[in-house]
Amino acid sequence: MKNIYLMLIIFFTTLLWSIINPKENFTCFLEIIPALIGVSVLAFTFKKFRFTNFTYFLILIHSIILFIGGHYTYAEVPLFDYIKEVFHQSRNNYDKVGHFAQGLVPAMIIRELFIRKKVISNQSFFNFIIVSICLAISAAYEWIEWGVSLGTGEGGDAFLGTQGYIWDTQSDMLFATIGAITGLILFSKIQDKQLQMV
Length: 198
Known about the structure:
Blueprint: H1 2-19, H2 25-45, H3 53-72, H4 78-86, H5 94-117, H6 126-152, H7 157-160, H8 168-195
Helix pairs in contact: 1-3, 2-3, 3-5, 5-6, 5-8, 6-8
């Protein structure tokens, strides 16, 4: 439980930092709301279903990525402005970190749920189905970004964050797919070890 409390302290401290004088209030709200919904669902279901500390840690990292994007907007995160200059990139690519995490973290959440709830009996389709679900989540998020941009005009442009890149939506979904595959390759064994202690 100590680890959970520490992660909650980090979560709410970073959240507080994010909402103090953000670049754009509306964009900040849009970026942090998934993390707030997520932590609410986790708190509500904690007694019935407790994830491994490793999965909670990944959720925390994803939340921090969202909070940073909310505070600065994804197009203006200072470190990635610096990276843009050093490597002569055409745009600030912090949003790709967010979309990579949008694939990786849900993949590990879904994987743990599937294993513990015995959702899939045929293991040969296991990873394919997880990656497919993550791609569906990514596509749905792109629909949300599109809807917000259409509904709010210029107010939603910072949330959409294309920065003039016409393939932004497609590359966002690609990065989420790469994130999901990377998570399954790199972290499955770590998660399995923690699952043995559940």
